[in-house]
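Render ATP-binding cassette domain-containing protein in 3D.
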Amino acid sequence: MGPTGDAALDVDRIHMSYGDVKAVAGVSFSVRQGEFFGILGPNGAGKTTTLEIAEGLREPDAGSVRLLGESPWPRNVGLLPKIGVQLQASAFFEKLTAREQLETFGALYGVPEDRAMAMLDLVGLRDKAETRENQLSGGQRQRLSIACALVHDPDIVFLDEPTAGLDPQSRRNLWDVLREIKARGKTIVYTTHYLDEAEVLCDRVAIMDHGRVLALDTPAALVRDLDSATHVVLERDGFPAAEARALAGVDDVAEDETSLTIATRSPAPVLAALAERGALSGLQVRTATLEDVFLELTGREYRA
């Protein structure tokens, strides 16, 4: 995808190698103003390097980047107040409380001290304002890190795997923070290897592997274009496999010790037939997900 004039971020055919390893190999995409854009991929896919080039932290070997209409490299000091960056490894000032961390980061941009409490409210940490960062939980530290990236009210925010290593509850709490950031009109560019998360949060996603973009679209469009079968799962003893195979619209039937799974691209008549036979007890319907899209593109299991 080539450059577009009104985009918050344009990445055009960038390349980056580390010795013989080609980390990024011709990546292009554009991010619209106010969009939540995800870069998905397993470790080693090239997503962090791509993000660092977009932020202006690295110079690409080839290609170009336009960030808010300007080049971020060489280091563009004029862009710094307009962008927020949260890296994989959060770095805080030692022995400072959560409030003091934000006040210190804010002072670098001339932000008033009272902005700190507003940011703690945003990320749900007001009650931890006087707690040192090394006494916060992993999820709380991640939320504080995001608050530090936002304290100067940037136009675009870069987040590199912000939910990595968090427990499910902390991940969901952080989802609410990310939704609130987007609701405030901010552009968000983030990387993750959590496909379920990207499917819920992102307006569009780019799936990367081996330094290349394999697919780019909305999550719903990527799933729809996959044309994958719907899987109807029944209790093992609830319906005979032979009868299931005889139903109109059934592509395949698989069995294990506890369940019977019907694969179909015509779920409506299959479900209607099962209802007529009173076989809906314990029934589950599983449609395709972004994980199915990834597996189809790469032909192997997703690497974490």
